[in-house]
């Protein structure tokens, strides 16, 4: 028999319906996270949970009194599963200690449509069916407001532990609290002349406000985003999961507002790789003085990570840990979504802090051992040229040098032979579409590895397009850990401001690819060297952390140079020490080898160290000869009210819940999808 149409939001229920058991589509399942209120599952999920629940109840195939085994139900866009027997839900792609309870809603509170607790609900439902099953529902859903329930006698009543339920008619059911209500509430209701029914009673509805249908279903995922943290996750393993959840929820809001017409969907998956590693056990933790633990935890999350990562003991463990977790998640996702790869699903990575450096190294296969070998080789060559030595010593050294060269050649040939017979599996099982860095120190690492600005405006200079289609570097202007990448590709970009990320609610923002580069304010800094020198000493890209930039915009950083907890001045000081060798072009005329092209890959020699100063135009701006193919540095607009001290501390972690960033990420991911559909449509024409 076809079920009579149940009431829908705003639609009345048919008249003269007969009381019968609730249909699967009238029941609604809920879940509760972080002890907040119950949230309804969407129709598609609720209906499938209810069918599993009914299969479980019927004991299909189980022995006498033995519950049937029911497959877990996949819910919430495939991120979670529900175990109906234990009434719990748990995530599929990551581990979580706290289980998420689920509950079956049959009776609901008027107005909020929150479900009554299951025990009470079951008792009321049983009583309702015993008393009214088969009876006609006289009233239309729309008319019931017109008849006041006041003064109507209850035709049936049920006593519960702390409250009781009165039926004033089949369709007018109220829940009353038996706890003595507060005096104030009583006097107010008496004064206003409310009678018993409408004052302390709560109206109940049987069946959810909206029918569950399988059509109420999430769109297919067309793009997955892996969210990668730095290493400072030992203390709080759940943080990346919470951060990703914030980013996912924020992206959902943006999707609903700006991309609801698209049938595709971007999914965010946390890559929690740190807790599986042993590293130093808890040695570092045990040597941390107790008093400074709180502050140290904050510092550790960035400073300690960098120490771990530069330690030859742990670097490989970290790289392998992240690489394996990325591949595990991708394989798991594809096995659960077989059509993802068939339909050309894409993968992007969002990394935070040191996570950017590790992700970069996995993608490019960068290895410090190779760099070390090159330096050793260079040292040997120099040693042969420089110092005075006896004929015998020189002869032996030359022999050793030749033997080492020969050894290297044999190793190379062996390596080539191996490579031709065994094709090494790629490090990652997927191509990276976009690599979004947030609050990233990557530029400093690259600079310290000898990467210097080149002459072409291509991203290939630091990350080949064959490995990753697009590199985007996002930072908050006061983030003490973030550095710019563009000046590592083209030097004069240190005088061009990063692209400003649009505010979430900007109406018709200019597309990023149409935004023209704007120059930083070229005012001289009071702290800089005397004029004679400053013209030739174009600032090294890497000495300027994001905060030590030329002032521009109405940004708070205008207030003072070393304002942000001294981070800017520290940056400048460190930068000055580290990069003094590369910052002065006039001081080292013997390094003027700008004619030679730096070889690609890891072997970038610092040949372009002494770039001559760029020509200044009469307006005081630089005249750039080359432009970047695509902009890479994108800066969040600062709020005007943030205190600058507050902002230095929180800016490094403020990325997760930013609507501006969520819109930025989705803009780039959806743009590619749209461009490709348009292209394939053109191809078919």
Automatic annotation (TrEMBL):
GO terms for cellular component: cytoplasm. GO terms for molecular function: metal ion binding; phospholipase activity. Residues 594-606 have a biased composition (Basic and acidic residues). PROSITE patterns: DDHD. Residues 428-671 form the DDHD domain. Residues 526-545 have a biased composition (Low complexity). Pfam families: DDHD. This is DDHD1 Phospholipase. The lineage of its organism: Eukaryota, Metazoa, Chordata, Craniata, Vertebrata.
């Amino acid at each position: 028999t076809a079920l009579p149409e149940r009431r829908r939001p705003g639609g009345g229920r048919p008249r003269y319906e007969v009381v019968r058991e609730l249909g699967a589509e009238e029941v609604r399942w809920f879940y509760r996270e972080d002890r907040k209120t119950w949230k309804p599952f969407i129709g598609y999920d609720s209906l499938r949970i209810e069918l599993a629940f009914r299969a479980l109840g019927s004991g299909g195939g189980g022995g006498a009194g033995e519950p049937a085994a029911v497959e877990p139900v996949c819910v919430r866009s495939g991120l979670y599963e529900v175990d109906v027997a234990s009434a719990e839900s748990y995530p599929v792609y990551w581990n979580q200690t706290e289980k998420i309870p689920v509950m079956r809603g049959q009776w609901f509170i008027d107005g909020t449509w929150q479900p009554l607790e299951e025990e009470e609900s079951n008792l009321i439902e049983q009583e309702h069916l015993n008393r009214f099953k088969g009876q006609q529902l006289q009233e239309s859903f729309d008319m019931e407001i017109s008849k006041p329930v006041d003064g109507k006698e209850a035709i049936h009543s049920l006593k519960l532990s702390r409250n009781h339920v009165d039926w004033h008619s089949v369709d007018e059911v109220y829940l009353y609290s038996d706890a003595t209500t507060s005096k104030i509430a009583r006097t107010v209701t008496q004064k206003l002349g409310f009678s018993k029914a409408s004052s302390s009673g709560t109206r109940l509805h049987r069946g959810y406000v909206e029918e569950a249908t399988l059509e109420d279903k999430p769109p297919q995922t067309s793009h997955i985003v892996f969210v990668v943290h730095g290493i400072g996750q030992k203390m709080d393993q759940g943080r990346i999961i919470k951060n990703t959840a914030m980013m996912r929820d924020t992206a959902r809001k943006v999707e609903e507002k700006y991309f609801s017409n698209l049938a595709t969907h971007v999914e965010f998956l946390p890559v929690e790789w740190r807790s599986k590693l042993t590293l130093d056990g808890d040695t570092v933790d045990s040597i941390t003085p107790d008093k400074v633990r709180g502050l140290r935890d904050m510092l550790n999350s960035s400073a300690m990570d960098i120490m771990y990562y530069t330690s030859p003991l742990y670097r490989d463990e970290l790289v392998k840990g992240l690489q394996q977790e990325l591949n595990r998640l991708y394989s798991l996702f594809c096995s659960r979504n077989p059509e993802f790869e068939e339909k050309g699903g894409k993968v992007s990575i969002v990394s935070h802090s040191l996570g950017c450096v590790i992700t970069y190294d996995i993608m490019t296969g960068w290895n410090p051992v190779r760099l070390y070998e090159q330096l050793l080789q260079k040292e040997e060559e120099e040693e042969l040229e420089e110092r005075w030595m006896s004929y015998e010593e020189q002869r032996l050294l030359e022999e050793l040098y030749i033997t080492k060269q020969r050894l290297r050649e044999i190793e190379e040939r062996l390596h080539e032979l191996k490579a031709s017979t065994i094709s090494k599996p790629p490090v990652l099982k997927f191509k990276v579409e976009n690599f979004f860095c947030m609050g990233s120190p990557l530029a400093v690492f690259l600079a310290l590895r000898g990467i210097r600005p080149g002459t072409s405006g291509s991203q290939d200079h630091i990350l080949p397009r064959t490995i990753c289609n697009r590199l985007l570097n996002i930072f908050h202007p006061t983030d003490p850990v973030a550095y710019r990448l563009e000046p590592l590709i083209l030097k004069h970009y240190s005088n061009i401001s990063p692209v400003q990320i649009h505010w979430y609610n900007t109406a018709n923002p200019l597309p990023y690819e149409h935004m023209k580069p704007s120059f930083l304010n070229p005012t001289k800094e009071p702290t800089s060297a005397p004029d004679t020198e400053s013209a030739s000493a174009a600032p090294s890209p890497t000495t300027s952390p994001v905060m030590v930039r030329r002032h521009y915009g109405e940004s708070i950083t205008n207030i003072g140079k070393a304002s942000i907890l001294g981070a800017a001045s520290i940056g400048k000081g460190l930068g000055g020490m580290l990069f003094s060798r590369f910052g002065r072009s006039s001081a080292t005329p013997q390094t003027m080898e700008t004619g030679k092209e730096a070889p690609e890959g890891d072997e970038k020699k610092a040949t372009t160290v002494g770039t001559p100063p760029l020509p200044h135009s009469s307006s005081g701006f630089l005249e750039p000869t080359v432009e970047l193919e695509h902009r890479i540095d994108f800066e969040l607009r600062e709020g005007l009210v943030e205190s600058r001290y507050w902002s230095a501390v929180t800016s490094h972690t403020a990325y997760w819940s930013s609507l501006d960033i969520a819109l930025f990420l989705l803009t780039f991911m959806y743009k590619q999808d749209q461009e490709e559909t348009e292209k394939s449509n053109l191809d078919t024409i």
